[in-house]
Amino acid sequence: MRFMMMTTDDGDQQTPPDEAMMAEMGAFIAEMSAAGVLLATGGLEPGGTRIKASGGKVTLTDGPFAEAKEAVVGFALVEVRSREEAIELSKRFFQIVGDGEGTIQQVFGPDDAPGA
């Protein structure tokens, strides 16, 4: 099962990570990569570009956006055996980085179709 684990900007000003936290996060990422669990991870640029299609017309709006307080700022795509395992990985992540918020959502794709 694949899950997208996303961290959001809760609006609280956070202090930059120190060397110890970066080393611990590096070890966590290396462990997940070696185990074949981590498929992709990264931080996201603030704002980005919003695309909207309506009535056959496509419009683009460059960020940042006023409602960016809850924007996704980082992600990890993992392949695990269960939602519970994804939750445990997310708990470990927050034990390393400290306070924050996020979302865990199962990812569906062609391999999830019946008979695949």
Automatic annotation (TrEMBL):
Transmembrane segments: none
Pfam families, per database record: YCII
Domain YCII-related: 1-91
Highest taxon above the source species: Bacteria
Record family assignment: Belongs to the YciI family.
PANTHER family: BLL7171 PROTEIN-RELATED
Name of the protein in question: YCII-related domain-containing protein
